[in-house]
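Subject — a protein and its fold
Fields — amino acid sequence, structure tokens
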Amino acid sequence: MAGTEVSDGGAERLRRWRMVLGGGEGDGTGCALGGADAGMDAALGALYGADGGGRKRGAGERSAGLGGSAPRVARWLGDIRTYFPTSVVQVMQRDAIQRLGLSALLLEPEMLEAVEPDVHLVGTLLSLNKAMPETTRETARAVVRKVVEQLEKRLASRTRATLTGALDRSARISRPRHADIDWDRTIRANLKNYLPEYRTVVPERLVGYGRASRAVKKEVVLCIDQSGSMAASVVYASVFGAVLASMRSIATRLVVFDTAVVDLTDQLDDPVDVLFGTQLGGGTDINRALAYCQSKITRPADTVVVLISDLYEGGIRDEMLKRVAAMKAAGVEFVTLLALSDEGAPAYDRDHAAALAALAALGAPAFACTPDLFPEVMAAALEKRPLPVP
């Protein structure tokens, strides 16, 4: 080739490859970084550098080096917020906690003030709850409250609107006032009365919504597995529990469990209190938790029980299945969510999930659910129609 100059496009490609490969003699780019690129590379190197993989560093190669120094970590947290968008910052924070063992540093107030709060950070804080010094607890509550308020803003209005509509539809009446007619269902119910010459339907039977009432129409029991793997699900379920509890026509009970069962219903007015009432980790006894929930059901035909668990049962499996079958036979709508989070496919006990789905009396599949889908799942359960399984 004539000449050795690199075009602007070629230089940009080399720069990007250098950022990906991390430097050292083996990257082959020969590209030096400066300014913001050097700062970004150093921030990445502190977390993903070669020392973390156990091999020797080459000259100029990234080095892992957050160590256990709180000031150094605090500076790094500030750097990554400077160089990367919030979504990337949250991933890097989560990786730092897992790869470099920084959980202990989250017990320091100045560290908590430096991090970008998200659902996974809340889960980590909850797992550290019992070890948290009093000087840190209020800062931790402020971090958790910020995440909870963000989730409520995102999810509350849509949840209330979806479930209010479901409750109204579940109370359909056959002699509605004009303002209460459900025209969609009325037309479908009278399609046999279509008059082609007039191109119209004669509404022989009217279907209407029940009028709004302050009385409790449905009861919902959220039964939440608080094992460590369910951290994100616990956070979302607590927020939804508070939203449901704010609706007068739904009586909501929230139960969390590991090998013990704790009823947090009296704290539902504040999901932050609910979250700090949980204790992530420990074993799992689903049968015991369902036994407690079953004992609190007074109107089976108007009750929805939502079990949120990865189904790794440490209790008596056959008793658990019999208990679910008994609730279904009594008229309870039973929903099993393997996870309630934005993550991908969760790890779960496939044998137990298959056993629940296989029982003819149940007809209720176990599936993972995103927070955005949860209102539709609850609406279907309240109306006793097929669940919108992803």
Summary: Residues 321 and 355 are 8 Å apart (CA to CA). The mean pLDDT is 80.
